[in-house]
Amino acid sequence: MKKKMVGMLLCAAMVVSLIAGCGNSGADKEGSKAEDVKKADDSGKKVYALVTKSAGNPFMDIIAGGFTDVIEAAGGEVIVRHPEAATADAQVSVIQSLISQGVDSITVSANDQNALQAALEEAMDAGIKISGLDSATNADSRQVFVNQASDAEIGKTLMEAIYDIAGGEGQWAILSATSQATNQNAWIAAMQEAMKDDKYSKLELTEIAYGDDEPQKSTDQTQALLSKYPDLKVICSPTTVGINAAAKVLQDDHSSVKLTGLGLPSELAEYMGDGDDKSCPYMYLWNPIELGQLGGYTAMALVNGEITGAEGESFKAGDLGDYEIIKAKDGGTEVVLGPLFKFDSSNINEWKDVF
Fold first, then answer.
1. pLDDT under 70 in the chain at which residues?
2. Which of 126, 210, 247, 307 is deepest in the core (most CB within 10 A)?
3. Could you tell me which residues come within 8 angstroms of residue 146 by beta carbon, excluding any fewer than 6 positions away?
4. Where are the domains of the chain?
5. Does domain 47-148+288-337 have CATH number 3.10.310.30?
6. pTM value?
7. For residue 44, what pLDDT is reported?
8. Cα–chain-centroid distance for residue 311?
9. In the CATH scheme, what is the code of domain 151-285?
């Protein structure tokens, strides 16, 4: 993550633009607004659709802002769809609607790795370019996936944080999103692989709980973990919704249990610090604005014929730089944004107003 002042100002401007209602990303949900029901040949513009995981997810909103800004700056038109629920069925309904609208591209953050395949294959058969973003479909359901960081790197980084915060031993738990979320499951699997190292032998994973990326359910699951495991030392939540809910529960309850994972600086700033009164010593993330931008550049490269999604191809993603398409572990291909960035009390104030 490049922490240059110019970049921070640009990122802040994107977020302000998003909040003010940039593109169609703010309130769109399952179904269609009349102004969005446009085919590519109606206006002469290429039409790029983004299907997020669900409505009410701040991380998805910020991704949508970055995605929208780069495409609109290049003269394209954007449709953002936020399904009402974080389910595959809700996303399938949205995808089928977009197929009927004749969009040029669909980028999707999948709620289920396999359940979207029939709908996305139908879209590809109709000539629509398909890419994944943030959470991958299976390889047969896309041309390329835009990944935020390698699964192995995320798993290893989070395990090292748990080890450090727990003092090398004791009970810990995971608060995930949905049990079908492909990115969450891949990161958890990478954490479990890292745990095979003898270094982590004194750490006990008690439970993987699922908050379904819903604030109230994530709150309830955190409270249940505290009740079930009185000796719990650390909760790791690799989801922005879950970590925000858990941070509030732990801090409000003056719990000795500490928290780490993947979170938004704007949401975690008040919970971050080394003191007993703070629930999160530190956490990680990548820049979701840049992730959305890379998703937008990738979609445009597909539509413009600059890439097909094949391994070894490369394209320029604006100010983000040049990216090469590489083989993904599921047999498909991907582009990777970059490494994780650590947020703690020393830098959180610099980033909390950016995203």
1. 1-43
2. 247
3. 107, 131, 132, 133, 134, 291, 294, 295, 298, 334, 335, 337
4. 47-148+288-337, 151-285
5. no
6. 0.82
7. 85
8. 23
9. 3.40.50.2300
